[in-house]
Design a protein that fits this description.
Elements lengths: L1 E10 L2 E7 L4 E5 L6 H13 L19 E10 L2 E10 L2 E6 L2 E2 L2 H7 L2 E4 L1 H4 L6 H15 L1 H25 L5 H44 L6 E7 L2 E2 L5 H22 L10 E6 L2 E2 H4 L2 H23 L4 E5 L7 H13 L4 E5 L14 E6 L2 E4 L2 H7 L5
Parallel strand pairs: 3-14, 3-15, 8-13, 13-14
Antiparallel strand pairs: 1-2, 1-4, 4-5, 5-6, 6-7, 9-10, 9-11, 11-12, 15-16
Length: about 400
Amino acid sequence: MIISSLRLFQFRNFAQQEIEFKPRLNFLVGANGQGKTNLIEAVFLLSRGDSFRPANFENYLFNRKAAQARVVAKLKSEAGDYKLQLDFMDGRRTPHLDGKRTRFSTLSAEFPVVLFSPESLASIKEGPEQRRVLIDNVLATLSIRDAKLLSDFHQTLRARNALLRQIADGDSRSTTLQSLESLTSLFLVIGTHVTASRLAVLRQMAPRWQESARHIFGIDDLSVGLEYLISDNCANTWSDEQVFNALSQRQSELSRREMEYGGSLVGPHKHDLRILFSGNDSRFSCSQGQQRALILAFKIAQIDLHHSVTGRYPILLLDDVMSELDADKRMRLMEYLEGINAQVLITATDLTWSRHFPEERNAVFKVENGTVTLTAPSAVRAVMPSIG
């Protein structure tokens, strides 16, 4: 699937803009603060509903003064053409597919995107939430079932937390306690399914991640790995029954504390992932550059897994990633991108690091002060000299 065109209306710093993308590499080039990341964010929002960077609703509106905003994409796939629209109005984000209301859990699998950004490349050194996002992004784009499962889990978690807050605030009615008991049973079942899905996809990712890491680092015998932690215990080989028993036992132990705290202290939202580099915890044993390369390799493994399972590539979004990598890793990433048949949107302040590519399937766009223009072919050749 590719985006043939993207139209923005009163979104971020774009008053009104339409862009016709090429099917392969699309470079969005400009100085900082001109709107490059806003374009990447618009595409990500169409697929996922939530942004990859902190934002209040009014941040999406043009100069924060507009009453509403809209992002529209025309999509092409082997199955046909589609129109995807996201409206921002009255504090809500409302998605439509071919004019009909839809759910983001459906869109994330039907319109899959994989994001590389400075935020995602910082996943190792950040907290457990960022590492959980890594694996949940794989689930959300791989199948509608898993995307809906994640949505159902977060909905159940919010409902359970609301009851726990009521109890922490002094609500001791028997009906409230009974509702909590009933919801906890459902919560543990859904939590087990989420955890089992995470473990299953990590097992599928493992050999692909090993291969991509060796390519990015240029080390043939490099060993990378990932441990899924439940209450600090490695659960990589656990069965569904073992997961359920562990969650149930821990929840029973912390039941009183949860009611005093007013929130769920057990479940997939509390799990962590330990990313290993040559057998050591990469948080402490790797440089910042090595950590970035590890996450980059993980994303490449995600792309390859998606293609293997679904037979198609997701749309790739690369936001200012090249500036985060050294010259050797940039070259290896470009070699990878040139070798797959995926549409890619890349933001950059310049293209001095890039390679020559055919103009008929690729393009360079200049982004300046909320305006996007297609760069003339002569300019493309000037900033992208042929190598080799």
